[in-house]
Amino acid sequence: MKDSANPPSIVFGWRRLYTEACLMHSSIDCIAASECNSQSFWKKSVGRLDHAIVIAGAPGDGRLDLILDTIQKIQQTHLPTQIRNEDGQSHLNDSLLRPREVSLRVNSHHEIPLLSRPPSFSTFQSVSSLSPFVLRGHASHWPAVADGRWSSKSYFKEIAGQGRIVPVEVGADYRTDSWTQKMMDWESFLDYLWPSETGGSSSGEVIYLAQHNLFKQFPELSADIVKPDYVYCSLDPPEFFPHYKPPSNDDQLVSNVWLGPAGTVSPAHTDPYFNVYVQVVGHKTVWLAPPTAQVAMSAFPDPSSSSSSNPAQNHENPSMSNTSRLDIFAASDCDADGMIEFRRDVVPHAMSSVLGPGDMLFFPPGWWHAMRSEAVSFSVSMWF
To answer: What is the pLDDT of residue 302?
Structure first.
């Protein structure tokens, strides 16, 4: 959202200042406290640098590399990685990865079209704006999938080292007042996803690492995925999304990860970009509906406009107006407000499918989509 009170140059300046302050503070730690043996002290120093990445984006030439190098220096000197067997829980066990029995038709009359073979690059450019599709096993060759490395807690701990922190969502539904966000110790989050036989997390909270560029924090993870050629297409704006613009970064590509336990739900919403979505670990139910379903999706009102029927407006004003108030995964006989119109006008045109490891989903901007993890689930999305 544009902020007239804070022009982009001023916002960048504050982000840059925050980054420099974090770097200077942790650099002073390395100089003035080089003999300190307190792990908590050095983890705090590493966490401060992660704040610069996550909160400010580490702007400035060479700043991200400098931050990552400083983290590595602190870890090598003061926080050596010690990988244990984790009491037999180093890899996700079958009970965590086994999907629940789910209906293939979750408030939908159709299954997402399944292509028998990947379309050529030129074919993709000509048909991609028409409809979503699934390619089973298209990413099975990714090291993250083929080697099973993303189902290993030890691997993730070794890649990151000690003291790292990540942003997580706390709560089952971001539409509720109880939902919040916080920074969490990476190792604690992994322990939450890999619960011990004694029951794992005792808090009972649903914790989700959602829509986060983990590759920026842990660049080594980039070698575990293979971006499909499709994400480098220059696609024309869809008819129903005439104001489409690709991401504004240099690559015109935004890659995020989604790591969460079984039952994690993303409510129905729309995105302003083309999306290639790959399931890496576990299974996830995906529900889709075309942009023509806008009226019956009961979206939250747009505070900037009395009328918001064009999903492209969300590109300029990313408010809750791109999110439905309906519970897509509720029972089909649910009589909540708006469900009668939803069942009448949306369900006949909606489609759903269950994605497994290595499956790739494509859908255009403006399509309504909801996700539900049927087991511990790790996914990668690529907006382009």
So the answer is: 77
